[in-house]
Amino acid sequence: MRAKHHRTDKDHAQEIYGGRDGERHRRVAVTGDEAINLTALDPAVGNDLKALIAAPALARSVAVKTRGASSVPVASITPALPVADPGKIICLGLNHTDHIKEGGYDIPDYPALFMRGRNSIMAAGAPMVRPSCSDKLDYEAELMLVIGKGGRHIPEADALDHVFGYTVFNDGSVRDYQRKTHQWTPGKNFDDTGAIGPFVVTPDELPAGASGLRIESRVGTEILQSSNTANMIWSVAQTIATISEYATLDAGDLIAMGTPPGVGHAKTPNPRWLLPGEIIEIEIEGIGICASPIVDEKDLGVKAAE
């Protein structure tokens, strides 16, 4: 699994790929279709991005070591989450005007924010699970950012300095459970419904705030959503500033930026739910493709606790 929009004009890639080879987790840097094992070059890199996020000097030093280092095909690597155990996963809803209208909501004057738990997310490529209690599993193509430098009361003018990188997120939503209460928590926290990755791209490789990038969701040749990150109501900088008014952001926190129009529940004349056997792909220009096969929970043999 690899992104379509690699940059190959540099000695080392700015994309960081969360890979897994059997039980040996490591971080790799990607150039074109090849990946270099950063953890092997310097064990201080560790098994997820936390060490590189916490120590920019380490990131710079290991980048120098990639020059001339041996590589492996990106396609041979199984993705892992960019941050194994993020402290916070904060999601922004209702951030595209046309999506707000298709959902029947009023345009808010303050961002709709909710949180996801750790069990609700999984790496790109891992199955997205349709729960046994519902057949209304929906997709949401979203930009996600990884916080690099934490803080509280972060000014909007300085907010982009707090971003380590950007990745792709599919905010899989179980719509009937999302609508059960005014709080969206139930529909957004089913196990293995939020796919992340497989690449994290550093800000220097993208436009400021990752604005102006094509964002799309599809199943096969069926285009489900197609928009642009420039259409977000609240920008990355505004969102960071807003969240940090009430919460201290920590390095490694994840923030999802909301989805454009075209989600399944709003399709007419009939909703378009994800079905077992399909593969849903979310693509953001310059970052990559997050693909997830859809499986049914009952086919996984998951049993209720006794």
UniProtKB/TrEMBL annotation:
Keywords: Metal-binding. It comes from the Bacteria. Pfam families: FAA_hydrolase. GO terms for biological process: small molecule metabolic process. Residues 8-23 have a biased composition (Basic and acidic residues). Residues 1-23 are annotated as: Disordered. This is 2-keto-4-pentenoate hydratase/2-oxohepta-3-ene-1,7-dioic acid hydratase (Catechol pathway). Belongs to the FAH family. Residues 88-294 form the Fumarylacetoacetase-like C-terminal domain. The keyword Thylakoid does not apply. The keyword Zinc-finger does not apply. GO terms for molecular function: catalytic activity; metal ion binding. InterPro entries: FAH, Fumarylacetoacetase-like_C, Fumarylacetoacetase_C_sf.
